[in-house]
Amino acid sequence: MPLPTRRKWWALAVVSLTQLVVVLDGTIVNIALPQAQAELGLSDSQRQWVVTAYALAFGALLLLGGRVADYWGRKRTFIVGMVGFGLASVFGGVAQSGTELIIARGLQGVFAALLAPAALALLTVTFPSGRERNTAFAVFGTVAGAGASVGLVLGGVLTEFADWRWCLLVNVFFVALGLVGAFLFISESKADGDNRYDLAGAVTVTLGLGSLVYGFSMAEAGWGNPQTVTFLILGVLLLAAFVWIEARQRQPLLPLRIVADRVRGGAFLIQAIAGSVMIGATLYLTFHLQIVMQMSALGAGLASLPLPLGTMLVAPFATKMLPRFGPRPLLIVGPVIVAAGLGYLSFITAMGSYWVEVFPALVVMGAGMALVFVPLQNVALAGVAPHDAGAASAVTNSAMQIGGSIGLSVFTAVYVGALAGDTSHLPEVLADAYSVTFVAAAIGMLLAAVIASTMIRGQKSQLLPSGSDAVLVHAG
């Protein structure tokens, strides 16, 4: 039975709030990391895993979370995800060691993987078609797109005027609102028919990605390090086993036809590289602002805003350009622009000015990212059968989180290698190491442009979803 109109819009407010929490938690902790590292005595490797644990668990379990929501019940999954996310946030907020904080962040990612697809599925069934659906998705996308900016500012305010722990504890407030709203305004729904969980696929892909990320994180001790090689090989073997399992499952976690298409496969690779920059490289920018430039937590949060705000401002123009030029030119030019911004950022110095060395780079990167993110979701959904649309969208989001996990591990290895054993932590030494990290990120974005030019091929009409306008997506 359709929901009353007023109740539907309250349901939209609830699920939009949920998406805001999931996205802002990807950035709010970044601002707090220098203080958390100092208080808990985190090593640089542990510091990286505070971010990686969330992104890895979120990305690896997102497909399974979508299946759980569809089969078990979307409202039920939403509520369990909310409660679990809140409890994990409290655990992280009272953590007394780096290990506890990393575990808490991983648990946040696990429950976010339940929460995010359940929220999107609830939005889809609450607004099944028409103008109301377009309005609902526009509101949902706008709120989600603002999440990164809100996280940066809120993280700065809480760290500056309260304590870094409140960057986690503040989630309890959002969770409480979400739970009350869920019980009042959201109705239960789930998929019909014979539904089976692909547990073998879920286990192999999660362990495979975890092994791969851990192997990359160990590369800071050397690429020839036995642990590095062992975990990288194990990760590849487990992911190969995942492909073998999916090819034989009647109801696979990931229908291989989605990623086998050359164009969509290219889009997922570009999304992973973009994720590595948005999650990985920008974390080192936060460190530069606070540790080298001696900005306060709030100052660093505000100083980081030109990147997400630039993306939000340029995205509507990119959306208008998409039907006219098609996705391919945007996906070639966008990464090149981001790479140019990263290249400019690599010239940072210990005594440099923010307005000269950092601000212009962030504006350029934000504009370039808009040209990347707007076409990606459209390309990922082009030519996808309706019953595969949810899985294809989930893979796009998973690719960003997994790309961020792997990218952050690789950038950490590059950063440690650039330090060359220097533990002085002098501003000049750190700035040089961050500079090398930004160069590595720029190379990654140039690789994304090459992937776009070689894999995103076809007529403009073939590369966009039929019968619909361009889909405007957020960068989270």
Describe this structure as you would to a colleague.
GO terms for molecular function: transmembrane transporter activity. Pfam families: MFS_1 (PF07690). It is found in: Cell membrane. The structure is a single chain. The protein contains 19 helices and no strands. The protein is mostly helical. The chain has 3 domains: 7-189, MFS general substrate transporter like domains (Growth Hormone, Chain: A), CATH 1.20.1250; 199-252; 255-476, Growth Hormone, Chain: A. Helix 12 (262-292) runs antiparallel to helix 19. The longest helix is centred in the N-terminal third of the chain and has 32 residues, at 130-161.
Largest sheet: none
Mean pLDDT: 88
Number of helices: 19
Model regions low in confidence, pLDDT < 50 over at least 5 residues: 467-476
How many domain units? 3
Extended strand count:
0
CATH class of the largest domain: Mainly Alpha
Please give the share of residues in helix.
over 70%
What order do the helices and strands follow?
A: HHHHHHHHHHHHHHHHHHH
Shape: globular
Gyration radius, in Å:
21 Å
CATH superfamily of the largest domain: MFS general substrate transporter like domains
- CATH fold descriptor of the largest domain: Growth Hormone, Chain: A
Which percent band covers the strand fraction? under 5%
Structural class: mainly alpha
CATH architecture of the largest domain: Up-down Bundle
For the termini, the CA-CA separation is 33 Å
